[in-house]
Amino acid sequence: MESWALTTPPIDIVNQYLFFIKRKTNYMATYYYALASQKFLLEEEPFEEVLKERRRDYGEKNKEIDFWQVIQPAFLNAPELAEAKAKAPEKNVAIVSTNKSFIVWVKLRLEYVLTGEFEAPSDAIPDPLASLD
Hints:
Layout: H1 11-24, E1 29-37, H2 38-44, H3 47-60, E2 67-71, H4 82-87, E3 92-97, H5 100-110, E4 114-120
Antiparallel strand pairs: 1-3, 1-4, 2-3
């Protein structure tokens, strides 16, 4: 006799689906960011390893992923972020999160980052994770 077992999809797939649903239902949220040059964040500071470790930790705790890495973030083109864009390096990368504490931790760990926040989705920022790259 065959046995049928329910399988649970990996937490990463569930988190991506939940985030997709939130984005498609115009769920307004506050996003926090830490912005740095690509050279600093991707080459000089091995931050990708930190993000991998954090993702693993979230997965073990069945916690929804609330942070993303965005190269050349489009949100900087919003009029309300003109000042941040003026201060941003030409080739930049952002760590974006809905968790303010995580961005504060990033700022403390890295120091040389610009931080801020924005509301999305909005007319100026329809997709908070869009990249110009």
